[in-house]
Amino acid sequence: MPKKIRIPTPLRKLTNNEELVEVNAPTVGEAIAELQSRFPGIAERLVDERGEVRRFVNVYVNEEDIRFLKNRETPLKDGDEVSIIPAIAGG
Question: Which partner for 22 in 2, 6, 72, 86 could form a disulfide, CB atoms 3.0-4.6 Å apart?
Fold first, then answer.
């Protein structure tokens, strides 16, 4: 059973308007790499030049922030749902 990645509205133009993308990666970092191989350009919006998740991007695995888990090394198991949530600023 694959893992599911929920794509936020601002990034859907890169995923052909797909809201939910299935991946087979064993970690969050590898899931982002798989997204990049399928949807070129998406990784640069999610991670910096060192491969770390950008400060203004929040990534959750089953509603748990990966910053409190193992960041990009957070393991994924079958049926997990990864949510990408860009921070919104304004005033």
Answer: 2
Residue keyed to tokens 């990784």: 43
Q: What is the 3-state secondary structure (H, E, C) of 52-88?
A: CECCCEEEEECCEEHHHCCHHHCECCCCCEEEEEECC
Mean pLDDT of 20-33: 97
Rounded mean pLDDT of the chain?
95
Give how far Cα 46 sits from Cα of 1, 6, 38, 79, Å: 25, 13, 15, 22
Give a yes or no: residue 91 inside a domain.
Answer: no
| Residue 45's CATH number | 3.10.20.30
